[in-house]
Amino acid sequence: MKVVKWLLAIVLTLVVGVTVYLTMFFDLNNFKPQIVDAVKKQTGRDLQITQDLSWSVFPSLGIKLGGITLTNPDGFTPASMLNVNEAVANVALMPLFSQQIEVDLLKLDGLTLNLVTQKDGTTSFDGLVSKSTADKPQTAATNDAKPMSLETLDIGGIELTNTNINLIDMASNTTQTFNLKSFTLGQFSLGQFADFAYEFSATLPDMQLASSGQGKVKIDQALNHVTINDFAMVHNAKGDSLPNKSVTAELTTQMTMALDAKTIDLQLTRMSAMDLAATGDIKVNYANSVPKIAMSLDVGDIDLDALFPKQEGNTKESATKIDTVSTQEPDLSALKSVDLTLNLTAKSIKVSNMLTQNWQMKMAINKGILNLSSLTADLYQGKLALSAKLDARKAVPTYQFDKKLIGVQIRPLLTDAAEVDLISGTASFEVKGSGSSLIADNLKKNLDAVGKFEVADGSLYGVNIPQMIRSAQQKLKGDLSESSKEELKTDFTSLTGSFTMKDAVVTNPDLTMAAPLIRLAGKGTANIASEALDYALTTSVVGSLSGQGDANDESLKGVDIPLTIKGTFQEPKFGIDTKALLEGKLKGETDKAKEKLKEGLFKKLGI
Hints:
- The protein is 19% helix and 50% strand.
- It is α+β, with helices and mostly antiparallel strands.
């Protein structure tokens, strides 16, 4: 016991002695001129410390300083690079002897950083580290140094307030301001959860951001794993480029970071922004130069038309802006530094007035190649299946795709997607294509595709082919009375064909249509760029074209009648070759006369 008492007495005497010496004979302010001169010699910058330095020794070893200013290089604006209003750090003294760190308080208030980039590329950091120091190789002792191990790490609290970072770019004449209004960490110990909270804002050239959040954080004893639970955040962004000029997002996550394995596992327990809601998880492995990211998201209803409404204003100016953008390939170089896999499910997605439900999508981006391996969705009472690949490794990207629509109601689809009311029915459609360039005009010109289609139990709108033929026939007979007002619609049981696309022109060589009264076949083209239609078809009458109350007229039965389709997608124009109709009618009359003459001759000959 005497030995222990003597040891405690010796330690206490040493502590008291150090305390008396430091407080009475060791004035930190005496070193201020030396510190200022050393900074000036090393960096060429001026350091100012306007407040007195003070410290405490027992029961905590602490230091308080403030009024610190470090200048930017000569000729920079603003002149100061760093300003600190007050910094306080207090560490319990006795636990240090047993590799235990107990921090009573860490406080930093009023830190301002003005980081300037000049037009010639020089920055605020230039000259802070001398070339000889920066180029000096590390010694073996430094390279082999072992990380410090701690028995305990206890922090009474951390307070960061009024921290401002200004990024000033003189070349673009822009300033980005980041403000950490506050960050607080409560009582913290290794292996135990501690409360934290923050409040942050930023001013960017085209946007203002504000964010606040709170949660619980835990760091394990080995300093290898960080766990954050119940991390709830609220973000708000304002800017003219945003939907409705303002976006508010709320996010609640659970996160685990393995510093030794360099992985992050993020679970989105709640995410909402405007009318969007989602859950999912994100896994990141940053052990390699390109982080590997795996995302799995489940979202509800997404209305992209509401999120990104059409721009209003001067149509001519908007068109000019679009044309300017469309003459350059989009910069997809960022895809080369992305390794991402994404599994997405969505209840519904609306885009360009088209509504789809039950999305299932699998996509990957790696080394500049975007691979959409599978996308399926319910579309207008049918199914959509799509796969595609985009290769962005070269300046002009290339792409290929395989798309299928099965059992889709074609009329509402075309009406919503392109405002075209031309055809109805249950449609199945297949197309495979490839091309290069993502410029709007080149998308049409460079696309090569092949496909086929089939529409069952539908109608062509804007034309009544039997009524057109009947009306033309009546006029040929001299009946110029007004045609009956029947609905401009031609019903059919099937409409089929195949097509190819090249140089923005769709060529359909084998269009066939079967209807109750007629058969139609032929070929034609559709110009995607100009939306022009050019079809030459042949109509064959297979039933009576008589109207209600008329005598049964089968005079055109078996006669081939040329039919043309001109105009545009929006306003197709149908026409009948009346000359061919007349020739067909005369041919029919002639055939009848020949048959009667033949019968009379046979009768006279007694045959």
